[in-house]
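quick one before i forget lol
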Amino acid sequence: MAVVGVVQLVVLGSVVPHLRGTHTPSSRSAGPIMGATLLLSAAISAVITAPGL
């Protein structure tokens, strides 16, 4: 789970220069990243806690 957090931090950090150079809302760039990492962490949690594995 910590790996997902580190990946999210790195990807969001790489988006910051792009956001500073534009006038678009930050949610347009950061939203999909946050959503993807949320789904990834939920999938990892489901696999880890799945009964019988």
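fyi The mean pLDDT is 83.
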